[in-house]
Each structure stands twice: as C-alpha cells, then as structure tokens.
Amino acid sequence: MPKRLHENISLPQGVLYCWGDKFSSKPTFNPLIPNICYMDNGNNHSLALTETGELYGWGDNKYHQLSSNKTITQIEKPIRIQVIPNQRVKSIACGGNYSAAIMENGLLYVWGTLIEGGKCTEIPTKVDLLKGVTCVSVGINHCAVVADSPTTPEKRSVYTWGTNRKGQLGVVGDSITNAPRRVTLGSKAISVCCGDEFTAAIVEGNEVFVWGYNKSRQICSNNSDEIISIPVKPFLGRDIVELSCTKNYIAARSGIGNVCVWGSNEQVCRIGDDRFINFPNKIKQISASTSHILCLSEKGEIFSWGNGEENQLSHKLETTTTTTTTTTTTTTPIKKSTLQFNNVYQLEGRNILSVYSWGKSSGAIIEPGNFRVDIAESMRRKDNIGSPAPLFFRKLINYLRGENSKAEGLFRLSGSMARCDDLEKRLDSNEIFPINKYEPYDAADIIKRYLKTLPEPLLTNQLCQKYEKDILNYHNSSNSNSSSNNNNNSDKIQILILEWIEKLPIENRQLLIYLLSFLQEISYSQIKYQKQNAMGEKNLAIVFAPNILTRGEIGNDEIVEDMIRLLPIIMKQYPLMEDLIIIDQAQQCLRGSRIPYIIDHWIRITKERETANNSLFKPEIIKTIINSIVECTLEIKNNQNNNNNNNNNNNNINNNQKENNQNNNNNNQKENNTSPSPLSPASLSSSQQLLSTSSSSLTSSPSQRNSLSTGNIANSLSLSSNALFSPNFLSSSKDGNNININNINLNSNSNSNSNSNSNSNSNSNSNSNSNSNSNSNSNSNSNSSSSSSGSSLSSSPNLSPTIVNRSGYSLSFSGGTPSTRDSSVNNLLNTSGGAIQSIQRQFVNNNNNNNNNNNNNNNNNNNNNNNNNNNNSPSLTGSNSSPALTFSNSSGNLIETTRLYEQVLALILSPVLPIGSIMKVLPSIFELETNNDLFIRLLTTIKLVRTIRSNLNEFIQQQLSVIREINQCSQFIDKAKQLNENVESIVSDLLYIDDSIKYWKQLQPLIQLYSQQIQSYFKWWFDLLEKSMNDTEEKLFRAKKEFDKLETEKTKLEKQLNHLNSVTLETTDEQILLKKQFDQWCLINQIDNCSRKMEISNQNLQRVNHDYCAIQSQFELFKPHLLIVQEFVGTIQKSISQYIEKLEQTKSNTLQMFPQYFNAYIELIFTHHHEIKQQQQLSVIKSLAHSITLQHQLLFIENVNQSKYQISLELETKFNSLKRVILENLKDSR
How far is Cα 358 from Cα 287, in angstroms, rounded to an integer? Predict the structure, then answer.
C-alpha cells in the first residue's frame, strides 16, 4: 500500500485514470470518480479527496471503513463521507480496514477497524490527545501521525498506536495499544509513512528512521533481526524528501529527483541493492505497491517497473510485420515483469498531476483534456462544469455566428491544414488568443475534427448499433409506401430518436443538442443569404453524419437531418438546454457584429420554440443579458476614454517639449534669487480659497473631463455589499461617519495625472525642507499618506438602509425563483460573474497604460513645476465634472451598439417602460453592486407581457369607416379576410383590457418597492459622501488653524531670540553671561521643537487636504449617478401610472364604440352572405365560419363575464343568428 507525504488538499485536482487488475489494459478515464486531488487505498476500499476538502469513498464496507450503514457491505459508486459538518478535510489515509482524515483545524478523525477482531469505530471519531496533526499514515493494523509535541525539544513528533507485535509502533512494551504513544527520534518529525508491518519517518535534515518488521531487510539490510523496535537509520547522508512503503520494501525520493529502493521483492528490488536510480528527468513523486512502482517526472512522464502480468506497467511492445507488399507496425502492452523502468506510453503528452499504485493496479490523476478524450472527461474541466459543451467548442461555435455563418460552403469547404493544426494546438493548451485571425473554414474544420477524433462517436457505438439501422429501414419503407404509412413511419422515427437521445450519457446528450441547435442556426442563415449554394439541413447532415454516427453506414445522414428537424420536440424534453444555450449566446454574442445576428436569432426561435420563449424571460437569463450589456457598454466607453487620453497625452508631450527650453532659462534666472522654502499652507487662508484651489484648472481641461468616464468610475469604486459595511471601510471620526479614503481606489487618482500635473506637484509626505518638486500623481499621495487614526466603528453596518427580506417577495415568473433554479445554470452563470467584476482587471491594465503615458508628461513638466517653488502649497484636485453617462454624446460606435441593445431589451422587457431610460440608468445602477440584484428583480417584474394596441380606439373608428365604405359584394369578398382578422384582434384586445389593468395594478406596488429601494441605496451613499466631505473640510480648517498657531508661536520665539542676540552685555559677570546663554539655548530648543511640530502639522494638513480632495472628487462623480437614478425612478413610476390610466380610458371609450363597430360588422355580413353563397365563394364562407366561431368562443364561452358588459342582449342574439346562418351556408356549400 503506497503512502504519500503531502498536505493532500493543496495538490492540483484532475480526473482519475486507472489500469491493471480489474481495469482496462491501458490507462482509461474512470467516469465514476469525481475530480480529485489525492487518493489512498486500503485492503479493499479507497478514499479520494477533492480540492474543496470533500471526501469520497468506495469499495468494501464490512468494517464500516466507508459508511456507518450496516446494511451496505459493498459500495460500487463513490459516496460522499462527511467527517465533521462545515469543515474541510485537509489530508487522508487508509490501510487495512481503517480510514483516517486530518481536518483543517489539525484534529484527526478515524473510523473502521484497525486491529483484526478489535473494536469497530462506525462513525468518524476524534483521536484525543493529538493536536496540530500534519501527516497521517495507516498500515495493516497500526496507525502513525506527525503531531505537535510542545513539551518536547523537537516540538513535533511521531505518534503511533495499534498492534505492536512486529515492533511497528516504535516503542517497547505492550503488544496492542489504543492510545497514541510518542516515538523518540531525537529530531523534529516532518512526515511518516506506514508499510504493512513497519513504519518510516522523515525528520528535520531529511534523514530517514525506520522500525518494525525487518524480514525483508527493509529496515536494515545488514541486520538479520526480524523485529527492530527501536528506530534506526538505514543509511546516512541521503537527502530524502518522500517515502512510499509497502509490504516488504521502501521507495524513497531524494531532493534532486532520484529514487532509491531497498528491501526484498522479486519483482522490484533485491536485498542490498539500495543504490539510487537515475532517470532521464527529475522525479517529483513516487508510489509503490506490492507488485510494482510508479514514478512521475517533472516533465509529466510516468516510469514504471515490477510485475506487469495485469498490464499495470503499461509498457509498449512494437512488433513489425512484413509482407511482400506492405510493412505494418503494431503496438501492444507488455505483460511481463521487469526490473528496468520504462514509460507508460499511452499517457505521453498528457499533463499528469500525480500517480498511485496499489495491489496489481495503477492510477494517475490527470488534468482533463480537450481533444481525443471522452466528452465526460473534457466536461470535468473547471471552465466546462455546468455548461452545455466544452469551452473551446463553444468558442468555435460563437466565432461562426454572425457574419461568418453566411460564408459560402461553410463545413463543406476545408480550411488550411497548417492553420487548423495550429488552431487545434492552441485550443488544446487552453491558450488565450484572438481567434479572428483564423478563417471560419478553419474553425469549422476543427469542430468536425474534434467530433471525428472522439474515442467513440458522439451517439456511442452501442446505441448506434441499436437504433441506426431501424431508423434507416423506416426511411426506406417510407419511400415506397403511401402517405398514411409515411406519417406512421415518421412517428416511429421520432420515438426512436427521442429514445436514443434519452439513453445517451448526459455529457453526450448536452453536446448533441448544443450542436443540433447550432446546425439549425447555420441552416437558416445559409438559406437566407446563400440561396443556391446554401448549406441547408440536408447538406449539413451529410457532413456531420460520419463524424457523430457509426462510420461507413450509407445513408445515415437522414438520421442527423431528422434530429435537426425534431429540435423543437427535443428541446421540450430538455428545456434546461434551452436555458444553457441562451445563456451562452448572451455571454458571447452580445458584442460587435454578432448583436444583430443574435437579435434576429432570438426573435425567430421564440416564435418557433415555446421553450425558447419561456427561457428568455427567466430571471437568470435576464440577469446574464443585462450583465453582458453593461460589460460591453463599459468596455466601449473605457476604450474611447483611453483613446482620448492617449491623444491628449501625445499633444501634451509635444507642447511640453516646446516649452522645456524656455522653462529652463526661467528656472536658472530664479535659482539665484529664490531660496527653497518649506511646504506651507499659508495660502489656505479662507474657505473660499480652499474650495476653489485648482478647481478652475481641473474644469478647464477637456481631456480630464473625458477621463472621468463611467467605465473608469466602475474601476475606481467597487462598492460591493461586503465593502459597503466592512468595519475597515469606515474609519472613526468625531461623529463616526468619515470615509477612510485609503480604502478607496479613486477615479481621479488614476486618470487625472496627464492633465493636472502643472497644478498638483506636491507629495503628501514631502519633506518640508526638500529642494525637489518632482510631480507626483495622486496615487502616490494616497499610498504614502499616513493612515487615519482611530479604530473602526462597530456600528457602521447600521448606517445602511434597511433591505426588505427577499424571501418575502412573491415573484410570478416561470422557471422558479433564482434560489431554486438548476445548479447547472448557476455554474454557467458563475463563470461570467458580475459585469463590473469581470472587467476590473482590464480597466486596471488600461489605466496602467495611461499612467505610463502620464509619467512621460510628468517628466516633461518638472521644469514647469520648479517655477512655482515659492508658492508650493497643497492643492485640491477635486473635480466638478460629471461622467459622460448619456449615450448621445458618445461616438457612433457606442450609439449604434446602444441602439442594438435597446432592441435586445425590447425582446424581454415590456414596452410600458421606455427602454431608453433603462439603457441610460444601467451604468449608474452597476456603480453599487448591492443594487444589481434589486435591478434584475425589477426587470423580471416588468418583463415582456402582452399589451393591447396603443391606439385601439382610433383603430376601431378606422375599421368602422372601412365597413361603412363597403357597398358591393365584390368589395366585401376582397376585404373579408382582413376584416375578420381585425375583428378577432379587436375582440381579443377588448377582452384583455381588464386583465391588463389588474395585472399592472398588482405589480405597481412591487415595482415601486424595488425602484425606491434602489434609490435609497444611492441616496444613502450620497449622504454619506456629503457628510464625509463636510467633516473632512472641518478637519482641514482645524489642521490649518493648528499650523497657523504653531507658525505664529515660532515667529514670536524667533523675534525673542533675535532680540536676545542683538543685546550686547558689557558685564563680565559670569552668572549673567551664563543666564543669557541658557536663555538662548532655551529659545533655540523651543524653536526647533516648534519646527518639528510644524513639520508634523504640515504633513497632517497635506494628508487631510488629500483626503478632502479625494472625497470631494468622488462626491462630484457620484452626484450625477444619483440624479440619473432619481430620474429613472420617477420615469418608471410615472410610466406605470400613465399606462394604467390609458387602459382605463381605452376601456371607457370602447364601451361606446365597440357595439357600433360590431353591429356594423354583423350587418355587413348579413347583407352579402346570400350573394356569396350564390357565387359559391367557398373559401370566403369557410373564412367567415372560422372567424365567427372563434369570436363566439372568445366572447361567450371563455370570457363571458367580460363580454356581457360590452355586448347587449340584442347584439348577442343578432350575432348568434349570424353564426347559425353562416354555418348553414357552409354546410350547404359542401
């Protein structure tokens, strides 16, 4: 049993490949085991640990080594083992029939049976007396750990318990002990490893101690004693960092990556052969079993040697067969023992994370692959979990959407082989790169190549054999039978296909549906734009049939064509796939040239598929769409602002270079006449001066106003719910509400450097006697300023407005509440994150680039700054400019994108609210992350529902005029169809008015609640910023007053000193002279002390001034967002009220107009129905009969309560007479 020495949870996670006894002859992916980072094996059971600290187990459970359930003796599929609720497992070990786990807090829990015939521990139980456990290992019937031993010089020791019959506990005495006993090693223990009946440990200095059963000389090769109870060193001076112990030998890895094996095992090593084995590359991990050894190199190679009778070595044997015409080479595994290591050739090129050997089996944890691996394996990658298809596959699909979907011969014509190979290599290595440098044909080829090179077809060999021929037989019989038989065969084909898809593995099924949905998109796009050479469903089926079905079956393209045709029915059975596909499209396609494509696509599929119509209005879908829109909008704005800043930077550099020569001359002239003066706040003499300092210079710079963009605001202030009310976010002040500005990354700091360097020259910690005046940006000021004094307010969380408990909301939308939606949708949503968070890093990078450009400006402006040497006072860099939040002032690209986004929102939101207002408020809403959820809830509340015709009254009046203008039967025949449709539409709208009024009146309080709560958050933050700004301003005045006081005191002392120095004493009295010297000394010291206080006061003044400038700037930046939110809230509430009023007014008007219109319609039909019957206009009679029957159903069956207020009894009687006459005419005509 191999034992490895690691904190298991820190290892990388991957999928498990197994080979050897009870497994395949070659390394094969084990789909039953979840993604794990470590595993261990006992006699007949296994444990596995995930990177999140979850523990799984499978195998024998007779001794409760896996579960406390007495009825379960064998567990085939892994089960979750909960050791302690709400605690992660850090490390695991198992051996014999015993299991052990180290928790995050360093405590050890064990379960199972350690000693044969001994007590069975059914549930995980804590081992008392042990703390700070770092390593655990289990043998056949004993256990060893490394734990803290604070009372010993070593501080960390090995403890053992269990059976001691072979000396494996390392202590002299009892044959069995149930309590941990410390093993004396004399050095600090690092790790421990148990063989079957012996124990080994590594101590500080990487030396090895071994004790226990020595029959195979694994403890000491030159000692014939079978039992060695006292720990001994098998050899000296060897740098051992890892041990793996088994029944009769030990494998050790040195720090330089060599391996040494000692003991006696016929298949692995011989007694006395304890030399180091050198490998082609450094070994990073080893694992030994009773029959063989596995070694993993740093380059990912697996070397193995020992017994290979069960293919556990997986060595290759190439045989060459030569005939008269051909020579063939075949590779087969070698089934024999060997003492010479060799590669596990089937895993060459894979990223091997760790290896394991047990019994006659081998295993390896491998990073999930992309190409040429099972679909189930590739879906185990972190970026694929919860998604409908592998990430690289989705990238290719999304690249082919939009304009690329129109490419002639797509999927039929081939791309460049070299480009395709390069593209596959980059996708397989998960490289991040722009895919648009490749042709659409290259991406199409990679999709086909991926499907073709799967280990087995997407539709699986077994299911292809079961269904493929039967479906093709039904097709063949349909070609020769009547239409009724054809319909019967079509139904049977549909049943077989649905049954086939249902039996697929879930990963295959999801990928298939994702592919079919995309092929249907391509077919529609090709037919729409290519006409003659379009890749329709038939052509696409011909291309893909060989790639997803059994190879070589003639005519099987009809099966793929059937699947594409049956997509709406398939989606009905798997509606979650519709959600996942739309989420994927929203995340990837709501940008650039693909926006019109996806709008057209969503409009089409919502008409064709009920599942798509339902999915598009689910909260998680709306949330994804909104996030994508905000993300892309802020990206565009940020890029535009960066371009503007770069252009301004270039202009500034050119202007500054021209001014440098003149500035140098001016500086040289002033150097002789000007002495350096300390940084003094003398200029800050009044509040008007404080508030106006540098304000004019900032507002006069257009480039700086451009830099205060929405995108950069999002970067500068991420007010998440955690940050809002964190005790560290609010620093104490006298009134307890001042913002700690050091915890905010301010927009003005990161973007104002390029244009304010001529005014803001001072570093907040500059020395008062410093000669240099190098320009420093406000980021450096923030970092170097002294931290705010005082402790955090414990009451700061109570400053937030109260949020209504979300569990109290009763939202009426399909698909359940967000809390109950499917976990797969949650996982896919989590990969995108919030819009602001997902582009934070990009903003930071862009701002860093801007700062690099700004540094050039700063260097060029140093000479300008020296001109102000005598007036070097703190400057306020607050800005009154507002962010550019309106899209009308932006570039054409943003305007066009915004127009498209309005079309997207129009697909999911009710027209009752102006879409433009929603687009305008989006950037502001995402300024406070706390509002994101409220805003999404607001949008799901006002999602698209049916609305009546906006001009219903005018439409009824218009139709009444049309009816009155019809005088001849020929006119009526020509307009009969349109008249019927208009009547049906008017009746439907008329009957829906009451429902619509009721619906919006019910939603109005909820909409008001959400919108006002959003506004409350913004108002709370605005008030907090305003109060903080006022408090900081007061601090600034106090600091200025304190500085002035010290300056006055210093001036007074200097005058006294000057006066004392000017007095000449003509006496020789030593006492008087000494007193004068003492007075001078006292004054000098007082002046020095006052200067030091002034320096500290000056630094404090600069810090407070910097905080005030920053808060003032943030206040001015935040103010427009509040105004926009307030405007939006007013608009939304006004729009709902106006719509309800309009509905009520429409209802009132239609009560008078509709009876006249409906009566005119009935009279018109009565007038001409006899002549229509005589002319045998059967189509017109059918149309009238159908329309009148529908009207009767709507008016007098489904909505009888509403219609009785609209139609009098006389009119109802007349309508029933008309219905009877028309139906009789229809019967007679037939």
Answer: 8
Backbone angles phi, psi at 1111, to 5 degrees: -65, -40
Give the C-alpha distances (Å, rounded to integers) separating 239 from 205, 253, 257, 259, 499.
Answer: 8, 8, 10, 11, 61
- CA angle 1131-1133-1139, nearest 5°? 95
At residue 126, φ and ψ (nearest 5 deg) are -70, 140
What is the value of pTM for the model shown? 0.74
Q: How far apart are CA 650 and CA 964, in angstroms?
A: 73
Which residues have C-beta within 8 Å of that of residue 686, sequence separation ≥ 6? Answer: none
- Tokens, residue 739: 């913002």
* DSSP 8-class letter at 175: S
Q: Is 232:219 a contact under the CB 8 Å cutoff?
A: yes
- The tokens describing 198, both together, are 């012996």
Residue 131 has which token pair? 């703390």
Query: Would you call 1080 helix, strand, or coil by DSSP?
Result: helix
Instruction: Say if residue 1213 is exposed, middle or buried (CB neighbours under 10 Å; 0-12, 13-18, 19+).
Output: exposed
φ, ψ for residue 1047, nearest 5 deg: -65, -40
Rounded to the nearest angstrom, the gap between the alpha carbon of residue 980 and the centroid of all alpha carbons in its chain is 53
**pLDDT tens, position by position, 888-934:** 333 347 788 888 999 999 988 888 888 888 888 888 887 776 667 78
User: SS3 for 615?
Assistant: helix
- C-alpha to C-alpha distances, 1168 to 960, 1056, 1115, 1171, 1224, nearest whole angstrom: 17, 120, 74, 5, 15
| Degrees, nearest 5: CA angle 725-726-728 | 135
The pLDDT confidence band at residue 650, using thresholds 50, 70 and 90, is low
229: helix, coil or strand?
strand
Give the CA distances from residue 1116 to residues 207, 755, 877, in Å, rounded to whole numbers and listed in that order: 66, 18, 12
Would you state the torsion angle of the CA atoms of residues 184, 189, 191, 193, taken in this order, to the nearest 10 degrees? -10
Q: Determine the Cα–Cα distance for residues 138 and 881; give it in Å rounded to an integer.
A: 69
What tens digit of pLDDT does each residue of 1014-1070 get?
A: 999 999 999 999 999 999 999 999 999 999 999 999 999 999 999 888 888 777 788
CB atoms within 10 A of CB 356: 23
- CA atoms within 13 Å, Cβ hemisphere of 318: 5
Per-position DSSP letters for 82-128, written without gaps between them: -SSTT--EEEEEEETEEEEEEETTS-EEEEEESSTTS-EEEEEEE-T
Burial class (CB in 10 A: 0-12, 13-18, 19+), 77: exposed
Which one-letter amino acid corresponds to residue 582?
Answer: I
Nearest to 235 by CA among 273, 195, 187: 273
Residue closest to 400 by CA, chosen among 349, 438, 346: 438
* Residue 1137: other Cβ atoms inside 10 A: 13
Token look-up 């109060």 returns 1027
pLDDT for the residue 22: 87
Token couple for 462: 């077994």
- Could you count the other beta carbons within 10 Å of the beta carbon of residue 67? 17
Q: How far apart, in whole angstroms, are the C-alpha atoms of residue 1205 and residue 1212?
A: 11
How many beta carbons lie within 10 A of that of residue 283, not counting itself? 22
Three-state DSSP class for residue 264: coil
Question: pLDDT (tens digit, 9 = 90+) per residue, 797-817?
Answer: 222 222 222 222 222 222 333
Cα(first)–Cα(last) distance of the chain, in Å?
88
Structure tokens at 840: 């934070």
Total length of the chain: 1230
